[in-house]
Design a protein that fits this description.
Elements: H1 2-17, H2 27-55, H3 71-92, H4 98-107, H5 126-132, H6 134-140, H7 148-163, H8 169-174
Helix pairs in contact: 2-3, 5-6, 5-7
Length: 178
């Protein structure tokens, strides 16, 4: 009975001192949780920025979430970045000239067409890919490795730059775009 009382009082003292029953600081568990939250925040922020890169939009600025920030603040920041990532993903699903580029694709190659000198479903050459899809070219390789949505957004960037549908003169004419 005496040993049980000592064990219970040791647990009670540990709780008061902020220690676990094993004598380890509880702060370590809270700190690990905050590290996990920071990693999740970084992941959601990276997803947001990925879609912003794909669409050619400016990146949302980020403040640093310091290690001393409370867990509730970090959960709030995580919800914020997850919402931003979901919003950017939703925006990216519907490029402004999607229908027109799908028509152009109909007359061009397959989305995974790797026949040099033109790649992908919109038959982009390397200089076009470098100019309008540099990040994708650097990270994924040529356009035949990009998703159809990424290829359309790169073409959309060219369209926005003032080139319109001129990189695809014959197929754009067949689609009634000239």
């Amino acid at each position: 009975m005496k040993t049980i009382a000592l064990t219970l009082s040791a647990v009670a003292c540990a709780c008061v001192l902020g220690l676990s029953a094993l004598g380890r600081p509880r702060v370590a568990a809270a700190s690990a949780q905050r590290v996990d939250l920071r990693e999740e925040i970084a992941s959601a922020r990276a997803q947001t920025w990925r879609w912003q890169h794909v669409m050619g939009r400016p990146l949302t600025p980020s403040g640093a979430v310091r290690g001393l920030a409370s867990a509730s603040y970090q959960r709030w920041v995580l919800r914020l970045w997850r919402r931003r990532a979901a919003d950017e993903w939703q925006r990216a699903q519907h490029p402004p000239h999607e229908r027109q580029f799908l028509c152009i694709h109909h007359f061009e190659g397959a989305w995974n067409d790797s026949g040099a000198p033109y790649y992908g479903g919109l038959q982009m050459d390397l200089s076009f890919q470098r100019q309008y899809g540099f990040v994708l070219l650097r990270t994924k390789g040529t356009a035949d490795h990009w998703t159809p949505l990424e290829q359309i957004w790169v073409a959309e960037r060219a369209h926005r730059s003032g080139r319109g549908f001129t990189p695809w003169p014959n197929t754009a004419r067949s689609c009634g775009l000239f």
